Amino acid sequence: MNVLLLSMPDSFEHMPSLAIRMPNGGLASIAGNLDPHHHVAIADLVLVQREVRATVERLLREEAPDVVGLSVMTFQRRTAKKIIDMVRAGRPQARVVVGGYDPSLAPEAWKDGSADFIVRGEGDLTFRELARALEEGRRPETVAGLVWRDGDNYRENPPRPVSRLESDQIRLPNRKARVLRGYTLLGRPVDVVETSRGCTFDCSFCSIIEMRGRNFHTYDFSRVIADIRDAKAHGAKAIFVVDDNITLDVKRFEALCQAMVDAGLHDLEYLVQAMTSSMAAAGETLAPKMRQAGFRYVFLGIENVLDDDLEFLRARAKNKERGSGTGNATLRAVEHVRKNGMYVVGGLILGNPGDTPDSLEANLAFARRHVDWPYIQHPTPYPGTPMTLDLKKRGLVINDRLEEYDGTTAVVRSEYLEAEEIEFLRWRSDRWMKLRHFPTAVLHSPLWALRHGHEMLAHTFRGSTWRSAIGLESERQVFARYRERRQAEREYV
User: DSSP character for 34?
Assistant: First the structure.
């Protein structure tokens, strides 16, 4: 069979896509776990945001797919359904499969005839079993983790248990299947690698926990090293380690860093997500090993620096000092990261139910002082999470336009502030924090920065004009124009 796998063009706001374009690792894993006689093509549409329709139509002609699979997040649902309409028109005989966070947590949204099959949870093995059923012409009644259309109705098979990665059941990704080019991190070719899956904490905003439960499974080091080597062989000079929570097992992470050095793979540049409590407690030994292995940017899930907000987010446990029930671990974690020549990408969530102007400013002031690159989001009611139930019960969700559920559009008000005001206060500080890191980006990639620096600045300060620069327009006017442009940017198809 011919299989075409698509990720959506909709991107997050934090960085312009010209600076960061990451591949969808899940699709490469699905391609790698299909039986090898199938022909598979992967297209990450974030690489062609201005040419989505032409690209999809071309791929339908050239690949002649029997099956088209789409990976979808909630804010991408509208775009995905437009692309499915294109598939139905251009290749009506193709079977449409959807998977990812949104179909997994909101399958009812896809039982409108748009999808023939809905994959819930991990798709590596579910998609392979579905492909076998389709090829053999049998009904997929035994494929765990699948919802499928049976005439005018949908049938739901039993869920699939999460994969125990310690076995060799999950094969390496198939990066050769990618048919588009241009994955980049500030001009350096970038790829993604996972060394583990899952998390055992229960943060109220987390879609991962709702999709796969609270668990943690790890790949063998030999498999991880082979994956990194494969990414490097396909041109990667930077690697985003996409684990949900790699610092759940600090000793393993330290040993992995050493294994990467021993394998001679510390010449690449790595990005990773880390838990503040783990970095604070183990940073004295962990951070030097990370830097030796080539890690440069560390995303710290700070979430919030105020205890009341951490309580709402259910994130206090993973942000407290080890050995005590109190004390935010963030400062110590930041110290370890920076002392070892790495940069802090600070993940915060602002606009929680009890937030006031003062509490927002406390978090923004912290970020201005201690964060190298801000990754500040607003509470977003993604399907199925405890946060969503709580926010709806309180009547704080003010926006049901899912395409705006991108994390940086405030779709929830607090008990003291309107959503638009929350977004304005975040936006006003966020752009200047990003500007402060610009010289570092220039030193990191000087030639790329010379070519694209003006585009980076234009993206960060879009909405600004010469009139606003000399004070003839207020920040509120610039913000209104920024929001209009952001809305226009969402029309990818």
Answer: S
| SS3 at position 2 | strand
Percent of residues in the chain assigned helix, strand, coil, to nearest 5: 45, 15, 35
- Indicate left, alpha or beta for 485 from its phi (over 0: left) and psi (-120 to 50: alpha): alpha
Cβ(230)–Cβ(224) under 8 Å? no
Name the residue with tokens 């010379």. Answer: 450
Quick check: 417 pLDDT over 60?
A: yes
pLDDT, position 316 = 62
The number of angstroms, rounded, from the C-alpha of 411 to the middle of its chain's C-alpha atoms is 19
Whole-model pTM: value is 0.94
* Ordered alpha helix ranges (H), 263-302: 276-293
d(CA 27, CA 200): 25
Backbone angles phi, psi at 117, to 5 degrees: -140, 140
Alpha-carbon span 323 to 326, nearest angstrom = 9
Rounded CA separation 313/311 (Å): 5
Position 319 scores a pLDDT of: 65
Closest CA to 411 of 483, 461, 462: 483
In sequence order, the 6+-apart residues with CB closer than 8 A to the CB of 396 are 353, 412, 413, 414, 415
Rg over CA atoms, the chain? 22
pLDDT at position 325 is 47
DSSP 126-193: HHHHHHHHHHHT---TT-TTEEEEETTEEEEPPPPPPP-TTSS-SPPP-GGGB-----EETTEEEEEE
Residues 282-300 pLDDT 10s: 999 999 999 999 999 999 9
Which residue is listed with tokens 């699905």? 30
CB 345 within 8 Å of CB 300: yes
- Does the pLDDT at position 326 exceed 50? no
DSSP state of 195: S
Q: Which residues face 375 on adjacent strands?
A: 347
**Does position 309 have pLDDT exceeding 80, yes or no?**
no
Strands of the sheet with 184-185, listed across from one edge: 20-21, 184-185, 188-193, 238-241, 269-274, 295-303, 343-349, 373-377
